[in-house]
Amino acid sequence: MELLENRIREDAEVLPGNILKVSNFLNHQIDVKLMDQMGEEFARLYKDTPVTKILTIESSGIAVAYSVAQKFGVPLVFAKKHKSSNVNEDVYSAKVWSFTHNQEYTVVVSKKYISSCDKILLVDDFLANGAALNGLIKIVGDAGAKVQGICIAIEKGFQNGGKELREKGFRVESLAIVDKMTDDGKIQFRA
Amino acid sequence: MELLENRIREDAEVLPGNILKVSNFLNHQIDVKLMDQMGEEFARLYKDTPVTKILTIESSGIAVAYSVAQKFGVPLVFAKKHKSSNVNEDVYSAKVWSFTHNQEYTVVVSKKYISSCDKILLVDDFLANGAALNGLIKIVGDAGAKVQGICIAIEKGFQNGGKELREKGFRVESLAIVDKMTDDGKIQFRA
Questions:
Q1: CB distance from A51 to chain B under 8 Å?
Q2: What is the DSSP letter of B31?
Q3: Which residue in B21, B27, B35, B78 has the most chain A C-beta atoms within 10 A of its own C-beta, making it the best mutation to test that interface?
Q4: Which amino acids does the record list as binding 5-phospho-alpha-D-ribose 1-diphosphate (chains A, B) (predicted)?
Q5: What is the pLDDT of residue B99?
Q6: Beta strands in chain B (DSSP E)
Q7: pLDDT confidence band for A123 (50 / 70 / 90)
Q8: pLDDT score of A83
């Protein structure tokens, strides 16, 4: 999506360690108009796909997911990060390894909010190694529901998450795929 | 707002300890259409108020705040919860006591995203004792910006937060004010 790529070029910061900082418009300050256009684009991409629910993880996935839910006119559910790995039987849960914080956390979704009838789009702001998404996929699977597709704002194409998910047969739509970043701030997008 | 009050009557759970659980439509599963109508109502209430930015706290404030930001056509900023109280000089910060988790946490906002020119609406899903909002008010004050008003989905009118903020001169608009809840699930709204 040219609009998002341009915005990344103008406004993102490349930090050492392959960090792409987009706090200016995506995950601390949020440009709601841009979000809205991203939601529109996801709706266009998945226009022939039946969707009953949008699922994301708190916190930085919520804004993108909201815009997608709005376009599809379906509820949004966000998985909650849980401090301990002890969860009760009212929730579906998955363990997720955070490469950013170098620790494992547990994500939970109340069993009330996903049923086996649900056709779900997963949404997140970033896709790198895919750990968070694989957690959500496990949760959807445990509920007997179906993942219809995955909506990502920015995919780090030089990490394996997207490739592996596509190889498993998931449809992954990323609005911008970064194939290369250099410490002097140059960003190369997949054509 | 009658729509929200009716939804609370139909869909909320009253749990022991004066807990009002609205995970079904407000802060775990989110009814985006309801959110949109709430945003519309806040826009009506503050229609004569200049607003340059919406500020909330992750995570459960984000969806309501998104809908308000969309109506005003301004950016949304969410304060982040910080694990340690050590913060760097690039952020405004405030300590907030969480009565729910019985511990103190720190919220931070990058100095880049609030300036002394900003006219800010604070948004949150709940107002009880006002601890989180007072943290946001401190942050806005530290930035030299102005709080134009406060937008709350559900205020617990039997706790002191709203009363104290109004006494300090803040305009607080709560779409539903619960004056009384009983363990058998009865909820009484302020007229």
A1: no
A2: -
A3: B78
A4: 128-132
A5: 83
A6: 13-15, 19-21, 29-30, 53-57, 76-82, 91-98, 103-110, 119-127, 146-156, 172-181, 187-189
A7: very high
A8: 75
| Interchain proximity B73–A32, CB inside 8 Å | yes
Predicted confidence (pLDDT) per residue in B19-41, tens digit: 999 999 999 999 999 999 999 99
Determine the structural domain holding residue A153 and report its residue range.
2-189
Cβ proximity of B176 and B5 under 8 Å? yes
User: CB–CB of A28 and B73 under 8 A?
Assistant: no
In one-letter notation, the amino acid at residue A156 is K
- Please, how many CA atoms are within 13 Å of residue A138, restricted to the half-sphere of its CB? 16
Instruction: Give SS3 for B151.
Output: strand
- B102 found inside a domain: no
**CA–CA dist B160, B162 (Å, integer):** 6
Q: Would you say residue B140 lies in a domain?
A: yes
* B100 is a domain residue: no
Report d(CA A158, CA A54) in Å as an integer. 27
Count how many domains chain A has.
Answer: 1
CATH number of domain containing A25: 3.40.50.2020
3-state helix/strand/coil string of chain A: CHHHHHHHHHHCEEECCCEEECCCCCCCEECHHHHHHHHHHHHHHCCCCCCCEEEEECCCCHHHHHHHHHHHCCCEEEEEEECCCCCCCCEEEEEEEECCCCEEEEEEEEHHHCCCCCEEEEEEEEECCCHHHHHHHHHHHHCCCEEEEEEEEEEECCCCHHHHHHHCCCCEEEEEEEEEECCCCCEEECC
- Indicate whether B71 belongs to any domain: yes
